[in-house]
Design goal:
The protein is α+β, with helices and mostly antiparallel strands. It is built from three helices and four strands; from the N terminus they run ββαββαα. It has helices spanning about 15-20, 45-60, 60-70, and strands spanning about 5, 10, 30-35, 35-40. The strands form two sheets. The chain has a two-stranded antiparallel sheet with strand order 1-2. The protein has a two-stranded antiparallel ribbon with strand order 3-4. A hairpin with a 2-residue loop joins β3 (about 30-35) and β4. The longest helix has 16 residues, at about 45-60. It is elongated. The model has no long low-confidence stretch (mean pLDDT about 85).
Length: about 70
């Protein structure tokens, strides 16, 4: 088990763990809350693109969705 250090707005991951996961300075990670704690995984650019499109569509049709929710 490894320990992560948290400082104001940052998390420090041990170099050995970064090397095993093939992560480099500036790489993006996804973080998900689970019943066991937090799950960190390499961010998938395709998933990020799909989420951005979904947010854009939700913003575009915000009033329509509000009307349907009534």
């Amino acid at each position: 088990m490894s320990t992560l250090k948290i400082t104001t707005g940052s998390v420090t991951i041990p170099e050995e763990m970064l090397a095993r996961m093939h992560l480099h300075d500036g790489d993006m990670l996804s973080i998900v809350e689970t019943p066991e704690g937090l799950l960190l995984s390499p961010a998938d650019p395709e998933v990020a693109r799909q989420i951005a499109i979904g947010i854009e569509i939700m913003d575009q049709y915000d009033e329509t969705y509000k009307g349907l929710a009534k």
